[in-house]
Structures are given as C-alpha cells and as structure tokens.
C-alpha cells in the first residue's frame, strides 16, 4: 500500500470492495454515535443528541444526512458527466466519512473530554484561570481533528473526481462550494 492508495482508494479498489468498506464504516459510525449520544447531522459534522431523541430517530437523521449528500453530488456528477454512476457517489460519501470514526473515538477519550469540559467551564467564569495542560490537550485534539477532516475532504474530492472524471478548475470550485453549503445546510435542518 502506498500514499496514492491511502489518499485515493477509488482508483485501486473496485466498487464492491469500496461499498462493503463504506457500509461497515457506516455501521461503526452509527454504533459509536449511539454509544456516545451523538448524531451525524451532516457530512463531516456530529452533534450530541438531546435526551428525548430515540435511537431510530437518531439513526434516521444520520442516514438522511448521508442520503442528501449522495443525491446532491449524484446530480452534480450527472451534470459533469452523464456516465456518472450512483454506486461511485455512494462509495465516495461513505468512504470519505471513515476519518470521522477516529474523530469520535479521540473526542471521547477521558483526557480530551475532561479538558474540553474544564476549558468550557473556566471560559464562562474566568478565562485567565484556564489550565495550560487542558489548553495543550485541546489544541492537540483540535489539530488532530483538523487533519482527519482534511483527510476526509481529500477522500471525497478524489472519489468525486474519479467518479465524474472532472478536471476543470470551475467544476472543482463548484464541488467545493457544494460541500460547504451541504454541510452547513444539513446542520440547520437536523
């Protein structure tokens, strides 16, 4: 396995292998979200659910957020290239969400969770008393999460580019704009 395979698995593995990996990662994501009281409210974003949300409701919203992304990027893919296949877009969305599994796991580590809670509590009372250790822990977590999100963005870009055979810079800009709009819009819907 080389760097190209890590950043663009869509060019190495067939659609069935990618679909299986995507479905497994989706199952792991939904399991972890249920375990930690989270919900996927858009691609690349998680939020804590409230106490009254049921498991079915949380899973439904999570799946709906993925479905919205698939529909939007499938339509865009068809505009770019009439031969764009639905399975390639589904694989792109599912595989690009794998780094989110690591973000969930890292954010639930006790040291990270305690530091986040401590900083949140101190920021409300007296920001000058924030512990430097907590601040360093949160900065390391934030940097790690940022790297994982960048990796997820790389995966979605490479998957979409492979699925649609898009090369024009205008198409790439429209694609990037749609990622931002889809991510933000879904967060407000759910």
Automatic annotation (TrEMBL):
Coiled coil: none annotated. Residues 19-183 form the Yip1 domain. InterPro entries: Yip1_dom (IPR006977). The chain crosses the membrane at residues 18-38, 58-77, 89-112, 135-160, 172-189. Keywords: Membrane, Transmembrane, Transmembrane helix. It is found in: Membrane. Pfam families: Yip1. Its main location: membrane. This is YIP1 family protein. It comes from Chryseobacterium tagetis. The lineage of its organism: Bacteria, Pseudomonadati, Bacteroidota, Flavobacteriia, Flavobacteriales.
